[in-house]
Design a protein that fits this description.
- The complex is a heterodimer of chains A (474) and B (207).
- In chain A, the strands form two sheets. Chain A has a two-stranded antiparallel sheet.
- The radius of gyration of chain A is 21 Å and the shape is globular.
- Chain A has 19 helices and four strands.
- With 474 residues, chain A is mainly alpha-helical.
- Helix content of chain B is 69%, strand content 0%.
- Chain B is built from nine helices and no strands.
- About 2% of the residues of chain B have low confidence.
- Chain B is elongated, with a radius of gyration of 29 Å.
- Among the domains of chain B are: 87 residues, NADH-ubiquinone/plastoquinone oxidoreductase chain 6, subunit NuoJ (Four Helix Bundle (Hemerythrin (Met), subunit A), Up-down Bundle); 43 residues, no CATH class.
- With 207 residues, chain B is an all-alpha fold.
- Classes of the chains: A mainly alpha (474), B mainly alpha (207).
- At the A-B interface, α5, α6, α7 and α8 of A face α7 of B.
Chain lengths: 474, 207
């Protein structure tokens, strides 16, 4: 370890030290509050700035890789975490469940996700995943007196532990047969595309473990239950940042560690992607609860991102990154809307609850319309461009049939988005909606404005940034 | 004459296997845990024979010192009816046996392949002594706070998150709990802690 190594992990150091100091401050004050939340957001912003301005390279004997890709992901992850803090804080305070640990846990989760984004080694991969997951389990169960929240936390924990087991088993096989935990040494051991069967066996387990974390089918079964039970703003956080981190990790493992064996893993990723698209589309049709519905929607969307990844190469990774960032904005905005809506002191969570929303809360209803249309993939909303890039990459990577099947899946999924719109715009309202909190409403409207029309202007710049990030794999 | 390490190996290996069997078959769960500790100890002995004394130390410190003691606490503190747990034994025997058999076959296949062909190219187990006269505890010490400091500290953060999580999810501040206040106790003087009441005969004290 040298000072140069420490310099490269500056964002992580800022987050770790910030979280520890704030934990102490919180423990002595005994309570959180808006100011405390603001300090936590400040730490995330400073870490983000450090990530943007910091140099690139490898640190700790290759365990940490800092390149354009990790910087791109870290900025997105830290921004999403910074938004989750005030959203969750106001939501929990309204219900009398706020504790100072909430923003600190989000800081630590963001730290873990940042570590995942710059993992260059199976050990940092695993430690990063565990750090973020453990914080997320606690966040899911944060309302401990609520039976559904506890159930969500427990389910997430048990199934997450199972997936960690799969991942570790795979990692141990890869280590045993390739002789190292470093991605570049693993890549060197499979030169010429002839990987040892043991390494491939391990890779499949590793993919299974990561598929669990991004909730791709057939490892998606925890998603609807966890999304339904966990606090709504926390779900918005779950659906965005951790998935970007895990997708990026998957991209890095596959292209940096196993780039030569693309023939062996491409089919696995394509199958997982298509299964996710169809499970998300068809199972979503039967859902009445919006949180469950959006869980299936996120499963389908991960399918598209995986399709981009399966295409391989720079174009595939660029498409995956663009898709994930545009999806992150949409999903954060949607859950901000959902967390803002209450009727007679009860959260509005089913599709029927949304009846006539446009007459009562036009701002929120318009934002939700934008998110639904974007998720549907209708131009000129951002979701359209996200899917456009993925399908372009898939066609460019000779994945014609998967692309066609993916399009079919998105047609099926259109049914449930349109049903939500119909209920929201044309049905009669069933009661007065309470005034939404300012934070959630602001986040929702900013995200909706990004979805359309800001994304149209930002797309050129985002595309360049994603391309530069994807080029890190060379 | 059989060399001493061989005798030690067979002795320790037999003890490990017998203790392992005893863990499963012992009627009393406390005895099971004690046999588990025996198995850990003989396993540690086997590590020493292989020249991995650091691993042996770790096995004793972590598994015997922490995990086994935790098991013992769980067994003694929680009222688990182990006879009831055993009732399904014969019912689950076929499927359990099948899984155990599969695992055994897999282990034999892996062991024979590695023994005959070796692992993949480049896969060499790190030398227990680091190639030179460095002991393996020293070899680990050389990398733990240099190349591996990032992982080491991150693992520490994982444990911290686990601790925060346990506190967030279980700690409840109950009002009206009486706590010891040592400063207040020490500050007591006869004047504040004692009242002298003059009791008249036949009347008693009224509060």
């Amino acid at each position: 370890m040298t000072l140069a190594d420490l310099n490269l992990v500056r964002p992580e150091l800022i987050l770790a030290i910030g979280a520890l100091v704030l934990l102490l401050v919180g423990a002595f004050r005994g309570k959180g509050g808006a100011l405390f939340d603001g300090l936590c957001m400040l730490v995330l912003l400073v870490a983000g700035a450090a990530a943007v301005t910091g140099g690139h390279g490898r640190a700790f004997a290759g365990g940490v890789v800092v390149d354009n890709l990790s910087t791109f992901a870290k900025v997105a992850i830290y921004a999403a975490s910074a938004i989750a803090i005030p959203l969750g804080g106001t939501w929990l305070r309204k219900r009398g469940d706020d504790k100072f640990e909430f923003p600190v846990l989000i800081l630590l989760a963001a730290l873990g996700m940042g570590m995942m984004a710059s993992a260059g080694d199976l050990i940092s991969l695993y430690v990063g995943i565990e750090l973020s997951s453990l914080a997320l389990y606690v966040l899911a169960a944060f309302r401990r007196d609520d039976a559904k929240s506890s159930e969500a936390g427990l389910k997430y924990f048990v199934l997450g532990a199972l997936s960690s087991g799969l991942l570790l088993y795979g990692a141990s096989l890869i280590y045993g047969f390739a002789g190292s935990t470093h991605f570049d040494v693993i890549a060197a051991s499979i030169q010429g595309g002839q990987a040892h069967t043991g390494v491939l066996f391990g890779l499949v387990f590793l993919i299974c473990g990561l598929a669990f974390k991004v909730s791709a089918a057939p490892f998606h079964m925890w998603t609807p239950d966890v999304y339904e039970g966990a606090p709504t703003p926390v779900v918005g956080f779950f659906a965005g940042a951790p998935k970007i981190a895990a997708m990026l990790l998957l991209a890095r493992v596959l292209s940096e560690g196993f780039g030569a064996a693309i023939g062996q893993w491409q089919q696995v990723i394509v199958i997982v992607a298509l299964l996710s698209v169809f499970v998300g589309a068809f199972a979503g049709l039967a859902q009445k609860n919006l949180k469950r519905l959006w869980a299936y929607s996120s499963i389908a969307n991960i399918g598209y991102a995986l399709l981009g990844l399966a295409a391989g190469g720079e174009a595939g990774i660029q498409a995956m990154l663009l898709f994930m960032v545009l999806y992150l904005v949409d999903v954060t905005g949607f859950f901000a809307c959902l967390s803002a809506l209450q009727r007679n002191g009860k959260p509005m969570e089913t599709i029927e609850d949304m009846a006539g929303l446009v007459r009562q809360q036009p701002g929120i209803a318009l934002a939700m319309t934008a998110f639904a249309l974007s998720a549907l993939g209708l131009p000129p909303f951002s979701g359209f461009f996200a899917k456009y890039f993925v399908f372009k990459a898939a066609l460019g990577g000779d994945l014609v049939w998967p692309a066609v099947l993916g399009l079919l899946g998105s047609v099926v999924a259109a049914v449930y988005y349109l049903r939500l719109l119909k209920v929201m715009w044309f049905d009669a309202p069933t009661g007065e909606v309470e005034a939404p909190p300012v934070t959630a409403k602001t986040v929702a409207i900013v995200a909706a404005l990004f979805s359309f029309p800001v994304a149209l202007f930002a797309l050129g710049w985002l595309e360049q940034a994603a391309l530069a990030a994807a080029a890190a794999f060379g | 004459m059989i060399p001493l390490p061989t005798i030690a190996f067979y002795l320790l290996a037999t003890t490990t296997i017998l203790a392992g069997l005893a863990v499963v078959f012992a009627r009393n769960p406390v005895h099971s845990v004690l046999f588990l500790i025996t198995a850990f100890f003989s396993g540690a002995g086997l590590f020493v024979l292989m020249g991995a004394e650091f691993l042996a130390m770790l096995l004793i410190v972590v598994y015997v010192g922490a995990v086994a003691v935790l098991f013992l606490f769980v067994v003694m503190m929680l009222d688990v009816d182990f006879t009831q747990l055993r009732e399904g034994f014969s019912r689950y025997l076929p499927i359990g046996g099948a899984v155990a058999g599969l695992l055994t076959i897999e282990m034999i296949i892996v062991a024979t392949t590695v023994a005959s062909q070796g692992a993949a190219s480049g896969a060499t187990a790190p030398n227990a002594s680091g190639g030179t006269d460095v002991t393996n505890a020293e070899a680990i010490g050389r990398v733990l706070y240099t190349d591996y400091v990032y992982f080491f500290q991150a693992a520490g953060l994982v444990l911290l998150v686990a601790m925060i999580g346990a506190i967030v999810l279980t700690l409840r501040h109950k009002p009206g709990v009486k706590r010891q206040n040592i400063a207040a106790q020490n500050a007591r003087t006869p004047a504040t802690g004692m009242t002298i009441v003059d009791i008249k005969p036949g009347e008693g004290i009224s509060e």
